Amino acid sequence: MQLDISALPTPAQLEQYFIPFPDGRPAVRIGLRLSLYFRRPGDADLRQALAACISEYLSLAGDRMRIYSFATDRQYRKLKPGQKIEIGKLQAMAEPDEDFEFDVSASGEGVADHWALSSMSTPVTYREDELGYMLAYLPFTVLENAPPRSFTKFFLHLCNALSVEHGYGGMGWVLPFDLAGHNGALRLPEFCQQTLRFCALDVDDPSGTMNHCENGIKSINWLTAVSNRLLERVGGADTVARMAGHEIVVHPYSNGSVFQAGANPQIGDSYQGLIPPAYLALGKALKPLRAAYKDTLLYSPANYGPVPTGESPNKVFTQRWLARFDGD
Hints:
The protein is of the alpha+beta class. Helices cover 30% and strands 21% of the residues. Strands 1, 2, 3, 4, 5, 6, 7, 8, 9, 10 and 11 form an 11-stranded antiparallel β-sheet that branches. Helix 9 (237-244) crosses helix 10. The longest helix has 18 residues, at 44-61. It is globular and about 50 Å long. The model has no long low-confidence stretch (mean pLDDT 92).
C-alpha cells in the first residue's frame, strides 16, 4: 500500500496504512506516539507516578487490549474478552526492590498496533543520569470529537507527572514491541525508504534512546520536552524560543519546557522538499542538545551511500536521520 500525502489522507485513511512483514502481518503503521524519558527510575514516587500514567492510558484503551506482560513474565499473557489487566500487580512493581517492566498491546505478538504501550523503570540506579521510559501509541481517530489541544494536554500531563528529562510527541511510526517483531520491522526495505522520505514521522528504539541519550535529546518531534537541566546548556527555554522563531510555542512543565513546532503535527516529504519549516527551526535551535547516539537506530536502504571507508552504513544512515532537522 502506497502512502500519497498529496491526496491529504484523512486520519482514518492514515490508520489503514501499514507496511507488512513477508507473511502479511502489519509490521509498521502510522499513528500518534508519546515517548517519555525520565531520571531517577528507581525512585518509589516516580515509579508510582509511572504506574498511575499507565493506568490512565489503559482507561483510554478500554477493553481493546489483548496481550500484556510484566517484568517476570517469559511470555505474553493473553486477555480473554471482558478480562482486565491486574492493576494491583502493576502497582506492586512500584516498590523500590522490584523490576518495573510492562508491555501491552491490542494485537498479537509481533504485530504493530495503534493501541500499545511499553515501559521500563529499573530498581537500581547505577548512574545519576540513568533513564527509564514510557512509550505509548494512539490512533488518530481517538481525537475525533475531542476538545482542542487534547493530545498536547495529555502529553503535558505525562511530562508533569514523570518530571521527564526529555520526551517526544506527535505523528510517528508504530512498531511491535517484542524484540523479534521490532527488529524485523526496522530492517524492512520499504520502511528504510519511508523513514528517509517522510522525515517528520518520528521513530524510536526506547532501549537505545535510554542508553545513549542520558545527557542530551534524541532529536525532535512536533512536541519536544526538554528538562531545565539540559536547557541550561543553551541559555534556557527563552533563548531556544527566540532562536526558533514565532512558529514555536513553549509550554512549561514541572521539570522543563515543551516546544511545539507549529499548529499541527506533520508528515513531511523530503523527496518533494516538503520539510516542515517549524520542525527545521526547532531542530536548529535544539541541535546543541542532541546526544551522540553511537548505535544503530535505523537500518540503511539497499545501496545507501556514500559511506566513509570503514563506517557502518546503518550508523551513517542513523546519524543522517537524527540530523534531518539540523539545517546544515
